[in-house]
Amino acid sequence: PEMTRRKFINVAMGTTATVGVVSLVSALGTANPVFRLTRDKMPPVKGDVLVHALESKEGQPIRVSDLSEQLVRAWPMGKDEDGNTVIRKGDPNNILALYRFPKGQIQAPTNLEATVDGEIVAYSDVCTHAGCSVADDDQKAGAMKCPCHSGQYDPKQGCKVIGGPPPRPLAQLPIRLDGDNLVVGDFFLQNPYP
Ligand code: FES
């Protein structure tokens, strides 16, 4: 996984941003991450479950053309001392994973109101067991696997627990379309599985 991540980072470093981090919006007193993806640059859906990797170097904007079909990575974000939006490693509150499925294949208990066109859904990748990041590798089978205690989630089914000790599904994150932008995290959505 580390090699793969590094590869993504290197790709991101060598490219010019086509998508910028826009702003942080406060919701319920907490800064939520906001990012935008240009919708027409989303890669086409292939196969049963397609997971896009979204990884960017710390402090670098996200480039949609760097999306990978192999692996989910999310990107933590925050603000620096000058108020600029930056990507920070290791802030679990700001990590998320974005999934895109063939239309109509997202299944309950996903909160369909939190999908875009019934095909794109975003989750926090903070494991509900003990807080590890589950969006690390091994996406081919369509399961998100937590490296800490082998918790497994099915992103196609609302990230419900399909293995290991996690007590509840991953938190689903709010997404919406704003024109051609896919916006994540700029409004509050209650985790339907608190
Ligand atoms: Fe994920 Fe324990 S922290 S399974």
From TrEMBL:
<dbReference type="InterPro" id="IPR005805">
    <property type="entry name" value="Rieske_Fe-S_prot_C"/>
</dbReference>
<feature type="domain" description="Rieske">
    <location>
        <begin position="93"/>
        <end position="184"/>
    </location>
</feature>
<keyword id="KW-0408">Iron</keyword>
<keyword id="KW-0479">Metal-binding</keyword>
<dbReference type="Pfam" id="PF00355">
    <property type="entry name" value="Rieske"/>
</dbReference>
<dbReference type="InterPro" id="IPR017941">
    <property type="entry name" value="Rieske_2Fe-2S"/>
</dbReference>
<dbReference type="InterPro" id="IPR036922">
    <property type="entry name" value="Rieske_2Fe-2S_sf"/>
</dbReference>
<keyword id="KW-0411">Iron-sulfur</keyword>
<keyword id="KW-1015">Disulfide bond</keyword>
<dbReference type="InterPro" id="IPR014349">
    <property type="entry name" value="Rieske_Fe-S_prot"/>
</dbReference>
<protein>
    <submittedName>
        <fullName>Ubiquinol-cytochrome c reductase iron-sulfur subunit</fullName>
    </submittedName>
</protein>
<keyword id="KW-0001">2Fe-2S</keyword>
